[in-house]
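Researcher: Structure prediction, please.
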Amino acid sequence: ISYNSKIAAGQHIGLGFPADKAEVIANGFDTTQFRPNLISRGKWREKLGIEFDTFVVGHVARYHPMKGHKTLLKAIRQFSQRAPNIKLVMAGRDVDIANRELKSFIAAHNLEHLVVLLGEVPEIETLNPMFDVSVSSSIWGEGFSNTLGESMACGIPVIATNVGDSAMLVGDAGIVVEPNNPDSLAHSLWSLYQETEAERIEISRRARARIVNQFSIDRMVTTYEKFFTQY
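Model: Predicted structure follows.
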């Protein structure tokens, strides 16, 4: 029985699925499609009217309580009080101006000038490179986070809550915080914001290298081939 995350395997074993038949094969990423792209970075910033030197926090997830949109927005409010010249760009299904609940929350926290809502973006590989950090703020329910891996493949530093297999995916190439904790998330954003350009470049290099070396789509395919052929 193949699973794409350790947490999924453990949950199914807990339900009675045989542990000796469990095989965890992590998702893989096309690192030629998801890659650093300064042209896309410039185009998106120009399209959204965001200056090149603005520190952009990215969040890609459908609108659902498990994804922690409100936790991130609370963290951004704290972060913005210490860090000038920032923006939060949020993308995903129902993450748009038609979402009254989300718009009301943003307005109640006086964040309208800091938050950009894009809704679904079909070619997300063009959006990721515009971020300075990509955040996964999920509170529960994650298995293996594709959005984290896609951002890392684009060379974007990541901050992720310790939900599902996120900590395993991030490794030493990002920051992992406890879920549903705006204070911790704000502190991590501030920590990354204070890094020098050279330090951010090094984090970016590690993020992409981790995906290329351990989570490429070719590596996933090869693992599945071995898994199927042995049976």
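Model: The chain has ten helices and eight strands.
Researcher: Thanks, that helps.
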